[in-house]
Write a structure and sequence with these properties.
By secondary structure, the chain is α+β, with helices and mostly antiparallel strands. The protein has eight helices and four strands. A hairpin with a 2-residue loop joins strand 3 and strand 4. The N and C termini lie far apart (about 45 Å).
């Protein structure tokens, strides 16, 4: 698994550097996003991972399903990964590329867990607060987690900001048991 993660990072780094040098990062992001969608299809992924299927057949299928709009460079990168036996690494490579792109553009990814779905006003207020906290633009992904009871928990990188009722109750329980 570590080999695939390392390989995914190397390929993503290479694609990112090429895109930065050519000023085609948006195109790379679009094309790699298309491949991430394709590799999420279980039947196609199984076919591309199957060792008995010749590479030429995998290549034809991948070219056909990806369509004409994909840049040659992105297609060649994905085909290289498939040829080298790394099709499982493609989704991780795309995720790492997107992380590099966010970092380049000064965008932090915030994963928000809340007990109830957030409305637009709450989402906007949280995003504004996080922008002030990080001094970066924020890209939010949300998840409803009823186990929080109430409040929210936000993860940005390695930092966790937990303002959930569950964590407050756990801290109160810990103080009461040590007193």
């Amino acid at each position: 698994m570590a080999r695939r993660d390392t390989a995914a990072r190397r390929y993503a780094d290479a694609a990112f550097e090429i895109g930065r040098a050519d000023r085609t990062l948006d195109r790379w992001a679009q094309d790699l996003g298309r491949f991430a969608e394709l590799f999420a299809l279980p039947d196609l992924r199984a076919l591309l991972e199957h060792p008995a299927i010749p590479f030429a057949q995998k290549q034809r299928i991948l070219r056909r399903v990806s369509g004409d709009g994909v840049a040659r460079e992105a297609m060649n990168l994905i085909l290289l990964m498939v040829r080298r036996g790394l099709p499982r690494s493609v989704p991780r490579m795309v995720a790492h590329f997107n992380e590099l792109l966010r970092r380049e553009r000064g965008i932090e990814r915030a994963e928000i867990r809340s007990a109830l779905p957030l409305d637009d006003e709450e989402r906007g207020a949280i995003a504004d607060r996080l922008r002030l906290l990080t001094r970066n633009d924020i890209e939010i992904s949300e998840q409803v987690d009823p186990s929080l009871i109430g409040g929210i928990a936000v993860r940005i990188g390695d930092q966790l900001y937990d303002a959930s009722v569950r964590s407050r109750l756990e801290r109160l329980r810990a103080r009461l048991t040590t007193a």
